[in-house]
Amino acid sequence: MKVIYRFICFVLSAVITVSVLFESAAAAGAASYPSRVPVIYIHGEGSPIGTYDENGEFHRIDDMTVNGEEIASLFTDNSDILLKATVTQDWSDFCDLVAGYMIESFGGLALGKDGMPADGSVSGVDYSETKVSQQYSNDDCSLEKYAFDYDWRLDPTDNMKRLRDYAETILKVTGSDKYAVAGRCEGACLAVTYWETYHDPRMTDLILYASAAKGIIPIGESFSGNMYVDPECVERYVYDADLNLNIPITDFITLTDQLLNNILKIASDVCGLDYACWSVNNVYQQIYDTITPKVFKQTFGTFPGFWAMCEDRYFEQAKDVIFGTEKDEYAGLIRKIDNYHYNIMNRTEEILQNAAESGVDVSNVVKYGFQSYPLSKDSMVLSDEMCRVDYAGLGTTCTNIDEKFSEDYVNNAFKKGNIRYISPDLTIDASTTPFRDTTWYIKNLHHQNFTSAVDDLFFEIVNTKGMTVRTKDAYPQFLFFDTEKEELLALNAVEHKTDSDIFNNKMENDIFRFFKPVFTFIFRIITFIAKIFMLPARA
């Protein structure tokens, strides 16, 4: 999901003035054996988008990018506008400045008001029989062998014919009479839609992977204007992330990850970080309603594929925020996204249950061990940074990143006979998902890391009829991704720690934090006074 990563980068840069670029760590390498049943592996966003000329040559539209230096200069070169906004609390000129930059950066791939390309642009991936034959004959034994890319801007239903044709071509080339479908991130939306559209009896397995089928954090919150900068999440994020900072400040001081960590810890200890985040959130609430409609109607808001990942709780509000009084003008797009949202997304569990009852083995692979990006009121909910465990896990009960299940909760699970579904680190209860015996949870695997270490698990699932979390000793329900060895291990709560686990332990044993309630009281007085002075400006 490179486009989403880059959008998050922009927001993070503008909000906390730390410019960070995220790139997808694509899977590389090969699995130990090829799948006897071909697996159509549906990617998240990533397909090149462009147009074909009269000679059949493909011309790629420039990808949407975020440049850290450009963001920095955007504010430094227009410091007068920022100063005016800060003093007068009139943010109109500032909003125009930011909106202009975002539209220029992200508007190149915008769709029409009906949610379809107005410029003839398409996904530039070749899925001809010749291309698939080349894939079949090569030595690649990974999930990438039959990977499917598509126009990720489009509604999932608008990609079904191409996916169907691809499946038929694979069956013809391989000579197989069966195939499996696995969808990662946005690809999970297509996988669910595919079954609902065709109910193909030749399909043996349907596997969701880091699924966005029930929504993804950056979409719903940004589309609806519900972003929120949480100070503790900012501190934890910087501690956990590898920002690779090396910025000279003076002849004697260089801003590094460690220095930033120390600065944020001190700021958090004395509530200075709380105040800074409060200030940002206060300003954000004032300007977001101005920027959102202007920008999103010319960028992400025209992508039905992104609307397909908008959480249900934010969906109607997001339409009001982005389209406002122009809903009639965007009626075609709205009909399209409504159809998917209410007939596919909100019926995901029902559709998957139907597939299971029809003989399809339905499985789910969920990543976890991280908070989400610090731009949400729910940033603390256990996730893979992008997808919440309770959403990706289709109702899986989980804790916040800094919590564990209570002793009473664990004892109650034992009494109900569900103790085997409690993760060793006491953060996940798999008994609450309808596919509790076919859902695997991998700790310490980031959303953007689609490592080939997972390939063998997928091939075991596809080639072992009725495989559950207790079928193979090598693949129990709860796994840990060893980043050094690049392999999956059975999760051991004592030995397997993430950076977030280490951070939580440090905070629990930080003596200075015992005094934080005193500073919190002072902070609340300051914010109360600040709000009084902000009221005239807001009015």
Find the structural class using helix and strand composition: alpha/beta
Q: What is the CA-based Rg, rounded? A: 24 Å
Major sheet strand order? 5-1-6-7-10-13-14-15
Anisotropy-based shape: globular
Average pLDDT works out at 82
Instruction: Estimate what percentage of residues fall within beta strands.
Output: 5-15%
Query: CA-to-CA gap between the ends?
Result: 40 Å
Unreliable stretches: 12-34, 535-539
Largest sheet: 8 strands, mixed
Helicity level: 40-55%
Explain the overall architecture:
- The chain is of the alpha/beta class.
- 44% of the residues lie in helices and 11% in strands.
- The protein is built from 20 helices and 15 strands.
- It has helices spanning 2-16, 68-76, 79-88, 92-106, 129-137, 160-174, 186-198, 217-224, 231-240, 257-269, 272-296, 304-307, 312-323, 331-343, 348-357, 389-392, 407-415, 455-463, 499-508, 516-538, and strands at residues 39-42, 49-52, 58-60, 122-123, 147-148, 179-184, 203-209, 246-248, 254-256, 361-368, 397-398, 428-429, 439-443, 478-482, 487-490.
- Strands 5-1-6-7-10-13-14-15 form an eight-stranded mixed sheet, sandwiched between helices.
- A hairpin with a 4-residue loop joins strand 14 (478-482) and strand 15 (487-490).
- Helix 8 packs parallel to helix 13.
- The longest helix is centred in the middle third of the chain and has 25 residues, at 272-296.
